[in-house]
Recover the amino acids of this structure.
């Protein structure tokens, strides 16, 4: 996924369908799946545990990239104050 995000530019809806670019994107996706399969088959342990660890790692990575990084980048601004994060957490807990 990181290769797709860095190597291929985003495509807007009005542009034409380019077969070469889409083929390369799908090739990277297939290589990602083959690598994941290779890692899962080479790790010793129970099959259920391997899939559980893979799913937990995938979900954790998605959480960090989609939730934590935008918060961290936004929190570094001059107008940011931590009291607003604390107030939002307090309102969700209560």
């Amino acid at each position: 996924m990181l290769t797709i995000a860095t190597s291929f530019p985003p495509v807007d809806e009005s542009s034409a369908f380019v077969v070469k670019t889409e083929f390369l994107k799908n090739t990277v996706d297939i290589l990602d799946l083959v690598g994941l399969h290779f890692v899962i088959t080479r790790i010793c342990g129970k099959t259920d545990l391997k899939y559980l660890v893979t799913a937990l790692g995938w979900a954790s990575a998605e959480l960090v990239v989609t939730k934590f990084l935008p918060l961290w980048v936004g929190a570094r601004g001059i107008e940011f104050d931590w009291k607003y994060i604390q107030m939002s957490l307090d309102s969700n807990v209560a």
